[in-house]
Amino acid sequence: MKVAKVLEDLNRRFPNEPEYIQAVSEVLNSIEEEYNKHPEFEASNLIERLCIPDRINSFRVTWVDDQGKVQTNMGYRIQHNNAIGPYKGGIRFHASVNQSILKFLAFEQTFKNSLTTLPMGGAKGGSDFSPRGKSAAEVMRFCQAFMLELHRHVGPELDVPAGDIGVGGREVGYMFGMYKKLTRDFSGTFTGKGLEFGGSLVRPEATGYGNIYFLVEMLKTRGLSLEGKKVLVSGSGNVAQYTAEKILQLGGKVMTMSDSDGYVYDPDGIDREKLDYIMELKNLYRGRIREYAEQYPGVKYVAGARPWGEKADIATPCATQNEINGDDARKLIANGVIAVSEGANMPSTPEAVKVFQDAKILYTPGKASNAGGVSVSGLEMTQNAQHLAWSAEEVDAKLHWIMESIHAACVKYGTEPDGYINYVKGANIAGFMKVAKAMMAQGIV
Ligand code: NDP
Question: Could you tell me if the CB of 320 is within 6 A of ligand 1?
Answer without folding.
Answer: yes
